[in-house]
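Hi Prof. W.,

I finally got the NB-ARC domain-containing protein prediction working! I wasn't sure whether to trim anything, so I left the full sequence exactly as given:
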Amino acid sequence: MDSVTAEQHMEDLGTMENRKSHILKLLEDDSVSTVVLVGDTGMGKTWMAREISECAIREGLCYESLWLSVTEKYDINLYKSIAHQLSPSFITEEWGDEDEDIDSNKDVKDKKMEEEPESSKHKIKAKLEEKRSAALHEGKKYLLLVLDDEGNKMKDSDLQDIRAVLPSGDCNPLKILVTKRKSEEAPVKVTFKPLSHEGSLTILENSIDKKFRKIQGFEDLFDEIARKSMGLPAAITVIAGALNYIARHSSGDWTEESALEKAAIYEKADKGVNPLISCAYEMFPSTVIQNCFWHSVQFFRKHGGIHYNNLITHWIMEGNFDPFDHIEKAYKEGHCVLMELLDRGMLKIQDVNIVSMEGAALNMIDSRPRGYGGTANLGLASVFGNGEWKGLGQITQRDGMIKTLCNPKHWQKVSTLLIDGSCLPLESHDTFLDCMQELQVLAVFNPKFTSIISSLLKMDKLLVLLLRSCNLLEDMAHIKQLKTLEVLEISGASQIKSLPEELFDGMTDLQSLNLSGLEIQTLPSLSNLKKLRLLILRHCSCLNKLPSLKELVNLEILDLSGASSFVRFIDQTLSFLSNIQMIDLSGTAIGRLPKFHCLQNLTRILFRDCCNLHMLPNLQQLPRLQILDLSGAITFNKFNYISMASMYDFRILDLSKTLISELPSIPSSLTELKLIGCSELQKLPCTTSLQNLELLDVSNSSKLTEIEDKSFQHLKYLHYLNLSNTKVENLPSLSNLKNLRQLLLKECSLLKNLPDLEGLTGLEVLDISGCENLDKLPNLNTFKKLEVLDLSGCSALKVEGNVSFEDMSRLRKLSLDRCGGMNLSEIAAKSLECMTHLQILWNHKRFAINLQAHYPHQS
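And this is what came out:
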């Protein structure tokens, strides 16, 4: 091999097998010591490294393969990872199945690994030397070290430290395989480029369930999905995982056919994210899995792989499975979510029991109104993102607890404990906790004590204290003794009416504070909490004001949602909150807001149901604002400026149920515009600039009579349009909106004609019920993907020409109640055999037929 940089672009090597063979040959070359795999996220570098590692072992090319996942923050855990790969006896995964002596020895080993890293290094080196000596007789060639996602994150000196524990020699050399994103000079570099279309199609065909081959036209759909992957292997893996999950499980409204077609035609204007990744996310079936997914995104943006037990425990601590009465139930639900995310390809197995995130999903933008900050209870992924905290440690779940893995007789070694309140004996809870003075993380769910127990106050190493749903707790004043706390949640303590003023004075390291559900009227001083990043006071229904926030310069999340008595801030401005990302005052009684000025990091402003709020401060100096929600702010009537166009990241504007009569200029980045029930809105302004709009809802804006646009053809990403219960007489042209899925025109009583709908080939729901002046039926032959058709109350409708329902094989619901076209029911009856998914048919005689009961073959 030439000593100068040798670079091979992977798109020139054909199939993935050819790629693998090429890299294996490089590693067999005596002149090559390091091979660097370079490419963007999702190009398949980690997958290829795993294949190389397994193949080298299987074919006897190396005598050992070690895998290190290098993150931005790392420590002696790298050595622990090596030790675990060499021998499971270094770190056992069992609880109490071994006898006391064996388990005690294990504890000693673990402790020495933490306290005596030099000793650990010697043990690692000795073990590898033993394997190397055996390899000399077996003819195996090299030791393979894989550094996954390494590059700019590891210093040369650190790599030399790792090399020092790894044996090397002419007969059994050390070979290093590195994956990284950024390209730089390397003796042997293999650059991963996007796959060819044929290569993408091959991966898809090999990954997807055979059931999809039974779908009519599957070849064309496969071809389109491969094209949308843009040659990104991760995108194919994730969408295949989502589709396979639907094929193998009951997934609500999804069928194999509808899911495959959605993937093939899906479009979204997300910069930096492959559309197939976004499509796979939209196939998530529940809010719970969404919340766990976004917590994982936040965590893995700053951390590498984590034991699956720890990830599930994070989800539990963040409240993703609340409410629950037993930890076992929450853990079981968390494990189900974990397996689903693995099946869907969003999470991946990195090592034995270690999981990580699919890197291609880490760039996704959280468009949920409240986002991660509004759904998390502690914000652990953010609070401990600096790498200084060593995490929950080795933990396991058993007997109503999640605790540090150790001999059951050695409770003094426990550093992490999550426990049900019912498992803490009322008479001896002090005694139970007395022996655990090494605790760093303590979470008690549904505690039964009325005051903070004395043994808890002795824990001088405690970093995280969580007391959730503690409705019997009457006093928490003594909590001030826990000066090492970084995360504190005492929530649901509705018996607590007041807090001492000096309560937080000594908690100078506190980063997350959650006092949701307390019946306090005011908070103690927060002036010493300079490190505080999350302040969560949800549903503190008696809280009417906050102390000054001027010292909270690191605050990122301020959540007072549901604090229904809250009326004011003491501070006249919030400009000092330079790191603030979300302000949620939803459901409060606030009438006047402080000035915001230039808050560079603020992305979410949520003022839902703020009934007394009639005016906003100037938002034009908020360059990163993404979401503004004023829905239900029933006295808000205007913006004091004419343009929001400088907010280039602005995505969601919700002014539903406000008194707004006109809109400011909105930036082109907007994806959702909600003007539901805006009783004073008479005209929908021009949307020409909103070319990324996906959702437009002006339903129940009863005075709306005019739409300025003559056509909506520029809204190519629009998938939801709702003009129900408005006074519009004419609609803009909707032709060729191929992404439109739902068109809702209920109770548009003045609407006489529909525009040309010929191009709406993806339409799934068409509801024109109550359009009593509409006299012409659209061409139904266009809507081959329609699932819901509601023509009820269209009393003036006339049937003309060749009307047929025969092409609507996916129709689930057909409503013809009080429909003027009296013979439509007869036409529908003739097409029943074709409508194989039909479940409900409402006819003009005003009764419903449950077709699943009468025609069991309809499904």
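Residues 1-13, 72-76, 90-115, 850-859 have pLDDT under 50 and may be disordered. Does that look reasonable to you?

Thanks,
D.
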